[in-house]
Structure formats: C-alpha cells, structure tokens
Amino acid sequence: MNDITTWADLLHLMRQFYNKLLSDDRIRYIFTDIAQIDLEAHLPHLADFWEQTLLREGNYRKNVMQIHLELNEKEPLRPEHFQIWLKHFDKTVDEHFKGSNSELIKTRALSIATIMQLKISQKNHN
Hints:
mainly alpha; Globin-like; 6 helices; Globin/Proto
C-alpha cells in the first residue's frame, strides 16, 4: 500500500471518505439536506484543502472554520458528528494508504476537528 503523496491521492481519499459519510444515516443529512453539497463539485475543493494542509502545496485559501461555523448555525454540529466523521476518516485512510503522510493526515484531521468543536462550543455559548 502506498502513502499519500499527490493531489490525485487526496482526491481518491476524499471520494472514498465521502462515500462512507453519505452511507451513514447518522451524518448523511448534514451533507445532503443542510449543506446540500454537490459532491462532484465539492471533492476537488476537499483535495485542495488537504493538499495545502498535508503536502504544503497548492493555493487553498477559503476559511474552513467560518464555513463550518455557518453550517453550525443551520444545524448544530455535535460532538458525536465529529466522532463519526473522524472514525470514517481514519478508517478510509487506513483502507487505502500507509505511510508517514497517512499517519500525519489522521493527526491533522483530529486537530482540526478538535479546534472546530472548541470554536463551535464557544460560539454556541456566547
């Protein structure tokens, strides 16, 4: 099994990951009903984000935190949503890739999810 080294690897990872998310009744509605994502249009943006975050390449410039804070205003994002997201993320990485970048992307995903939960919790309590 190869490590994550290219944008194409990240696109493949995101496609497989979102297949899991959209198959999970506990979380699918956030993407389909609330965010109403067009998956084929969204996948390249996800790959761009992770390319910037993991490989330090590319030019992703959107504010991911703000996007999720706005989503939280439409539908509260609860800790269990993040747990489900992380479980599917880690499992998808492990099923398709192996190596230092594969471990690093899981660590970064956990860090991002933790910070998002803290920011959302702060906003909800203000």
